Amino acid sequence: MLKKVLIANRGEIAVRIIRACREMGIRTVAIYSEADKDALHTKLADESICIGPAPSSKSYLNVKAILEAACLTGADSIHPGFGFLSENANFAKICEEMGIKFIGPNHKLIELLGNKSKAKETMKKAGVPVVPGSEGLLSSKKQALELAEEMKYPVMLKASAGGGGRGIRVAYTPEELEKEYDLVRQEAKISFNDDSIYLEKFIENPRHVEIQILADEKGNCIHLGERDCSIQRRNQKVLEETPSSILDDKTRTKMGEVAVKAVKQIGYTNAGTIEFLVDKNKDFYFMEMNTRVQVEHPVTEMVTGVDIIKEQIKIASGEKLSYTQKDIKIKGHSMEARINAENPEMNFMPCPGTITGLHLPGGNGVRVDTAIYSGYTVPPTYDSMLAKIIVHGKDRNESIAKLKSAVAELVVDGIQTNADFILKILSNEKFISNDYDTSFIQKEKLAK
């Protein structure tokens, strides 16, 4: 078993990992930027070390500083959490070369699956249904126009190295495609320093459903069911739930089997998520694979009883999976809301500042993952997520009622949050009746 884990992250996920390590008797090292000197994760870890100034490029993305911190503290492993360096193949490779265990897949798989076009080809070879699109990267605007004519509009241009909803544009006509082609390449270059793009058929009104997998280093792999992440704004998830009410048992079983087969075929290890688009006919198509723990992993933990972070650490320690597929039973329904420091009425403008008062909800089947406290100053430098409120009920209706109650109980004084926006979603008749897709927020005009 690993002895000391350095958490290369901040916020609620750093706190989540520290708590899991504590329960396993593993010592922890927190890293922090100058802006995070009073952050909760620095107080909870066994050791804390400052790695640089506030900007991510000089701290949480500073590979050299993080690895020096690991060496100075004698950490034998690094958990990257999500975001920052969690899907950075070069970082994972250097960890491997230094003899520090990277808690995730090996660098070659991160590199392969991080490139969207290569990942698509890999999954296609592994028998996973994929959205029709270009064979590899686009070489010219002319090629894009010819392919779009073949597969019929609408089509989607996507940055190959994309993520976080950036580098994605939809075109409904050749004129739009010509215009968007240059814009996507520019956005990709600025955001990812890689202007390579590809084209795929745009699936209209889909549901975004993902399969959580766990795979050990001995060839065993299981899935933990699905999560429906269709409530999104600007391609970023807002609310997630499991199980997905759009799937029937036949489709659910097939998706799980396809995901496990693909993971085994490519030799993937640790936790991962295969994301699919599901159309109105219940046909599903591979979208991408995330080679890390997901923000929304708690909903899966609530319905399965599996601690995904602990399983990640056990797998990285060389242990066999604690579960077989037969052990995984989905009980009830779980839902998660992301509470952000932002103003939905002002185009989701971030709202950093000092929290002057705080009350977190509680009760049976209510979980709050957070790193905030009264008196904490939310910095303007990082992601605006403050907390995740997760509930577990006997069915979807009970989950909705519990989440509404929990979000209504939340008090965060001193800064603005999206709590009222979340309540609008939970009170919407179409959401309640399961009549929604990825364009729900836009269609229902729930935000400006």
Query: How does CATH name the architecture of the largest domain?
Result: 2-Layer Sandwich
CATH superfamily of the largest domain: ATP-grasp fold, B domain
Strand order of the largest sheet: 13-12-9-10-11-14-21-19
Query: How many beta-strand segments?
Result: 22
Shape: globular
The SS-based structural class is alpha+beta
Portion of residues within helices: 25-40%
CATH topology of the largest domain: D-amino Acid Aminotransferase, Chain A, domain 1
Count of structural domains? 3
Strand content: 25-35%
Write the layout of secondary structure elements.
Layout: E1 4-7, H1 11-24, E2 27-33, H2 40-44, E3 47-52, H3 63-73, E4 77-79, H4 89-98, E5 101-102, H5 107-114, H6 116-125, H7 141-151, E6 155-163, E7 166-171, H8 174-192, E8 197-201, E9 207-215, E10 221-233, E11 236-242, H9 249-266, E12 270-278, E13 284-290, H10 297-304, H11 308-316, E14 333-340, E15 342-343, E16 349-350, E17 353-354, E18 357-359, E19 366-370, E20 377-378, E21 385-393, H12 396-409, E22 411-413, H13 419-427, H14 429-432, H15 440-443
Parallel strand pairs: 1-2, 1-4, 2-3, 4-5
Antiparallel strand pairs: 6-7, 6-8, 9-10, 9-12, 10-11, 11-14, 12-13, 14-21, 15-16, 17-20, 18-22, 19-21
Helix pairs in contact: 4-5, 7-8, 12-13
